[in-house]
Design a protein that fits this description.
7 helices; binds calcium ion; 4-stranded mixed sheet; formylglycine-generating oxidase activity; about 375 residues; Formylglycine-generating enzyme family protein; paralog of FGE (formylglycine-generating enzyme); SUMF_dom; 3-stranded antiparallel sheet
């Protein structure tokens, strides 16, 4: 099987479906998810990176520096969607209290991540060859091993089609690209020149945890992230309040125009922007809406908010295990904030309460992170 970016089965599960017998196809269809447009996002139901080899356990905890961080005074807030714009997993609105914490004012940059890699020799998930024994854990039982040619170090790169398409299948604009990684965000022909202040991308959750450990920090809980994103503005849809995203001045790096083939560039950034290119929220935090999605510490559970029985949840740190009914076999972590690919007519991931999820071993061109510290 030839792997080319445009035609090829860049989505691993699609590849699997093409390589198994008819008898097994029905089981595999569970992995080939066609997205319900009403609930779609720019990367909903994307495949896992399919390796959970964690090298982060060899990273020694560093000494935290508060440079580039801001103290977020804790407090109570209502978590979830206060309007009718939310997805099902954003309800019910519920009261949460979080203790104070330090938070990076920007997404972690390529320059910062490069310092980490230089200091530790860390190799990211996307730079490693996937391992079948790990892959099979996230597939329906009995799934046969796909062709060896598909086991390559790769990551998912945004490759927009030339014409308008229906938005039912995210595989149309994501390509499983050999050689794509944080060092080569658009694939082997790309590099980080002039992108030192861009957020690092193609980092898995495991990579983000490794960096945070080295920096003496941690990933934010989902509750901390949303509390911080709201900047003290209660029950409003965006980190800046209520103004519609395409009214007034550009407020964040998202997608304007017809997704995914036409970007009007109204916000002056077609792709990823340098961190802090737009105004911060009231807590001094940049890009809490848009630019890149940000990993949180918590497992994702579509029904987590429903499960909270307490009147007020104190420092909630997520469910004990993942629960994504759309992909039952794949454990997923929470991501927040939306990205440069989020569009008002489609994803709306930049809403303060919007939740997204991905498997901890997945890297994508629109996914990064920032860190927090309690100390
Ligand atoms: Ca943009
Ligand atoms: Ca962001």
């Amino acid at each position: 099987m030839v792997m080319s970016t445009k035609q090829a089965p860049f989505i691993f599960c699609s590849v699997l479906c093409l390589t198994v017998s008819c008898k097994q196809e029905s089981a595999l269809e569970e992995k080939t998810v066609v997205v319900d447009e009403a609930r779609a996002s720019c990367h909903e139901s994307m495949p896992s990176r399919f390796t959970t080899t964690v090298k982060s356990d060899s990273i020694k905890k560093g000494e935290v520096s508060h440079e580039g961080m801001v103290w977020i005074k804790g407090g109570a807030f209502y978590m979830g969607a206060a309007d009718t714009e939310g997805r099902q997993d954003e309800y019910p609105l519920h009261q949460v209290k979080v203790d104070g914490f330090w938070m990076d004012v920007t997404e972690v940059t390529n320059a910062q991540f490069a310092s980490f890699v230089e200091a530790t020799g860390y190799v990211t998930t996307a730079e490693r060859v996937p391992e079948w024994e790990e892959i099979r854990k996230q597939l329906p039982p009995g799934t046969p091993k796909p062709a060896d040619s598909l086991f390559v170090a790769a990551s998912l790169v945004f490759t927009p089609p030339a014409h308008a398409i229906t938005l039912q299948d995210a595989r149309q604009w994501w390509s499983w690209t050999k050689g794509a990684s944080w060092r080569h965000p658009q694939g082997p022909g790309s590099n980080l020149e002039g992108k030192e202040q861009h957020p690092v991308v193609h980092v898995s959750w495991d990579d983000a945890v490794a960096y945070a450990t080295w920096a003496g920090k941690r990933l934010p809980t989902e509750a901390e992230w949303e509390f911080a994103a709201r900047g003290g503005i209660e029950n409003q849809p965006y980190p800046w309040g209520t103004e519609a995203i395409e009214k007034g001045k550009p407020k964040s790096n998202t997608w304007q125009g017809q997704f995914p083939n036409q970007n009007s560039n109204w916000d002056k950034h077609t792709g990823i922007a340098s961190v802090s290119s737009y105004a911060p929220n009231a807590y001094g935090l940049y890009d809490m809406a848009g630019n890149v999605w940000e990993w949180c510490a918590d497992w994702y559970d579509a029904e987590y908010y429903i499960s909270l029985k307490e009147q007020v949840s104190y420092n909630p740190n997520g469910p004990a295990r993942s629960n994504d009914p759309t992909e039952a076999y794949v454990p997923k972590k929470v991501m927040r904030g939306g990205s440069f690919l989020c569009n008002d007519s489609y994803c709306k991931g930049y809403r303060a309460s919007a939740r997204m999820k991905s498997s901890p071993d997945t890297g994508l061109e629109h996914t990064g992170f920032r860190c927090v510290s309690s100390l």
